[in-house]
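Run: sequence + flavin-adenine dinucleotide -> complex structure.
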Amino acid sequence: MEAPGLQIDPAKCTGCSLCVKACPFGALTLEPREKFDLPESRFKRIAVVNEACTLCGACVPTCAFDALALDEIERLGDERIEDYRGVWVFAEQRDGQIQDVVYELLSRGRQLADERQTELAAVLISGDLTEPPAALGAWGADRVYWARDPRLAEYNTDYYTQIMSDLIRAHKPEVVLAGATSIGRAFIPRVAVRVRTGLTADCTSLDMDVEQGLLLQTRPAFGGNIMATIICPHHRPQMATVRHKVLAKRQLETGLEAEVVPVAADLQPSLTKILEVVHELGNQVNLAEADIIVSGGRGLGAPAHFDLLRELARELGAAVGASRAAVDAGWIPAYHQVGQTGKTVCPKLYVACGISGAIQHLAGMSSSGMIVAINKDANAPIFDVADIGIVGDVFEVVPQLIRALRER
Ligand code: FAD
Ligand code: SF4
Ligand code: SF4
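>> structure
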C-alpha cells in the first residue's frame, strides 16, 4: 500500500476513491483488502500506490479521512526545507559570452533574494570567457560559482548536469532559475530529477510568497488559455526555466564585483561526444534580439506574399516573424514563429499583418513596446493589444507603408 514517501493508513482508508481520481500520474488504484494481511474492516477496498508515484502530494489533501501522508524525511533526504537558502541563476554562456537572458534572470533574482533576505549567486560553466565573471556583480550577483575547464567550452549535457547537481547538493539553494533556452531546456530537467525536486518550465513571471518562502511560478497552461501559478511546497530547490525577454533587465551599478568561487570540475566520462557545432540558420533570424519585427499570418494567403513583408522589414531594419498558421502552412520556416510554441519576443515595434491575435500568438509578443496591427476584420482580437490598429487589407496598407518609408 505504501511507496517510499507516501503513507496510506489502512485503519483510516475507506476505499472512497477520491485520491485515485486526484492522482495525475495514475499511481493510485483501489484493491480488495483481502489481498493484504490487514485487520478486519467494514470497508472492502483500500487505496494502493504504485511505482508511478512522483510524490507530488496532490492526493494528500483530497482524502477526507486523513489516510494519506507524505513523509518529509523521504522527500528531502535527511534535510529540511529550512536548510535551503539563497537564489541561484544558471549563467548560460555561448562561445564565452554570457547570454542576455542571464541578465534578466539576475535582475529578477536579485529582487527575489532581497525579498527573502538572502544571497543571489550565479553558476557559470565554461571554458574561457569574453568578460570576467566578477562583472556579474553589476547585475546583482553576490557570488559566482565558476566551473572552468576547456572541456566545458562547448555545451555537454552530461557535464552540465553533473556540475549543477553536485553544486546544488553541496550548497542547497532554495531557488534555481535558468533560461528556457535550448541549453536550459536540455539539462535543467535532468538536474531536477537528480536532486529529486520539481521544475516549472517556460515561466512568464516569477513572484515570491515571502513568508512561506514559496516561489510563485506562472506559466501558460491548457494550450495557453489560462495562466497557472505553480508552487513547489514540499521539495527543494524550487526550479524554474524562464523565457528570454519576459523579465526586465535592471543593471545595478557598473563596476560592482561578485565574489568568484572556483569549482573543481571533476568530470565523469561523458556519453556524449561533440563532433561538430553547426550554427542553425534560425540564429540568423535573431527574432529574440530584434528591435523591430514585421510578422505575417494566414491573412497573407500564400508563401510568396511574405516577400511583401520582407520588403517592409528591409525598409524598417526589421526581422520577419510569423504566426503558427503561416508556419504550419509551410509558407515560412518554423524558426520564424512567434508565440507560445515559437519564440517570445519583446521588440520596440511589432507589426502584425494578417494575424488574428490568438492567445497563443499574444503569449509570445504582447509585451512588445508598440504593437501595430493590420487586419481587415475590425473585430480581430489583435486589436485588443494593439497600440495602433489599421483596419484594412495588408495588400493595400503594406505597399503604402513601404512607399511612405522610401519617401522619407
Ligand atoms: P488566423 O487566426 O486564421 O487569422 C488570420 C487573420 O488574417 C484574420 O484575423 C483575418 O481577418 C486576417 N486577414 C485575412 N486576409 C487579410 C488581408 N488580406 N488583410 C488583412 N487581414 C487579413 N499560434 C502562433 O501564432 N504562435 C504559437 O506559438 C502558437 N502556439 C500554439 C500552441 C498551441 C498549444 C495551440 C493549440 C495553438 C497555437 N497557436 C500558435 C495557434 C493559434 O491558436 C492560432 O491558430 C494562430 O495563431 C492563428 O494564426 P493567424 O492569426 O495567422 O491565422
Ligand atoms: Fe482511502 Fe483517502 Fe484515498 Fe479515499 S481518498 S481511497 S479514504 S486514501
Ligand atoms: Fe499520485 Fe502524487 Fe499522490 Fe503519488 S503523491 S499517489 S503521484 S497524487
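>> summary
The chain has a mean pLDDT of 91. DSSP finds eleven helices and 21 strands in the chain.
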